[in-house]
Design brief:
heterodimer, A: 306 residues, mainly alpha, Alpha-Beta Plaits, 2 domains, 3-stranded antiparallel β-sheet, globular, B: 44 residues, elongated
């Protein structure tokens, strides 16, 4: 009997980070009464940007999505219209750059509800497919075109631009706002048309992709991750790998939710700084540094009772 | 220089953010955020 117990394979310790992700997801979408009133939260604090891709039309969202806010600034910025807003998006750009300068892409790994959703879907058992690295460059194209160039340059008959990323791509908006609002606001349902089904179809494709690939939206499409990734090499928070301790066992790569080889590039723009590699490295080769303090092995795993 | 760069970036970012706030951009973001975004939900 004892032998059969000993032969049982050890369960992999669960990641404590998932609890932080759940806490942040609920924290930035905490205005639950809106769900029952059939409206979105409209408090004065909603102009504060949240460090995540979190749709501000989610009924319970407490803050503003920085990517949505940035596109809106660019879409309304015109110099040839007297009624156009002369807002350059400095508040949002400054906010994004400040977060990036401090911690780089860390909010992607700890705060973003859509990143959390991707990780949850990836837990569904299925054949898994690795993403070709070349696909990760597409997110820069999305950032440069749908968030910056198209809202600024393509105008309608009234001279205004569109929020191209929100309108044509963002699956977070469909999941967090499009579906919930159709459920709780009956007056919106007659407006459903091609665009709604387009976004619903795109969301379904992404959800399927989340099951088979690790955080594919963050790695290939997300403009917020693309922007913050640019700061990874120059942020206050930094990852480091001790070449003398590293045995190239590749355990960190196998455990990484974005499939990077941190021993090749410690501050890669793809890294979401979840710190799983730090706790998975048995040799203490991976560390991080913030404000002059260096940490080698934080225990981010939920301990099993002895 | 490598140690100073993040602090310089942070200071410039905060300054840019402050200029935006001084030009009333918080109000503009708030107005957008408290209105149902038809583009976001697919009926825009």
């Amino acid at each position: 009997m004892g032998a059969s117990t000993a032969a049982k394979p050890a369960r992999k310790p669960r990641d404590k980070r998932a609890w932080y992700q759940a806490l942040f997801a609920l924290g930035i979408n905490a205005w639950i009464p809106s769900w029952f009133k059939g409206e979105i939260f409209q408090g004065g604090i909603k102009g504060v940007c949240v460090p995540a891709l979190n749709c501000y039309s989610c009924p319970s969202a407490l803050g503003a999505c920085p990517i949505g806010a940035l596109q809106t600034s660019f879409a309304g910025l015109r110099f040839n219209l007297t009624v156009a807003e002369k807002k350059f998006g400095l508040y949002v750009t400054g906010f994004l750059a400040a977060v990036g300068s401090a911690v780089g892409r860390m909010p992607c790994g700890w705060v973003c509800p859509f990143g959390f959703i991707q990780e949850l879907f990836h837990r569904i058992p299925s054949p898994k497919i690795k993403l070709p690295h070349a696909m990760t460059y597409f997110r820069y194209v999305v950032l440069a075109t749908t968030v910056v160039a198209l809202p600024l340059l393509v105008v309608d008959q009234f001279g205004y631009g569109q929020t191209w990323f929100c309108k044509w791509i963002c699956p977070a908006g469909t999941l967090e706002a499009g579906i919930p609002l159709m459920l709780i606001k009956a007056d919106l349902r007659p407006l459903i048309g091609f665009m709604y089904y387009w976004k619903l179809g795109l969301l379904a494709l992404f959800l399927g992709w989340f099951v088979v690939s690790q955080r594919p939206f963050c790695r290939t499409v997300c403009p917020l991750g693309a922007f913050w990734g640019l700061f990874n090499k120059g942020s206050l928070f930094r990852m480091a790998v001790d070449d003398e301790k590293c045995t190239l066992c590749d355990k960190c790569h196998k455990d990484c939710p974005v499939e990077i080889k941190i021993y090749k590039s410690a501050n890669s723009p793809d890294c979401v700084r979840c710190l799983r590699c730090v706790s998975s490295c048995k040799f203490g080769a991976i560390s991080y540094e913030f404000l002059g303090k260096k940490e080698i092995a934080p225990d981010l795993r939920v301990k099993k009772p002895a | 220089m490598r140690r100073k760069l993040p602090w310089i970036l942070l200071a410039v970012s905060l300054a840019v953010m402050a200029v935006g706030l001084a030009f009333g951009e918080y109000r503009a973001v708030l107005e957008k955020a408290i209105t149902v975004c038809l583009d976001c939900i697919g009926i825009g």
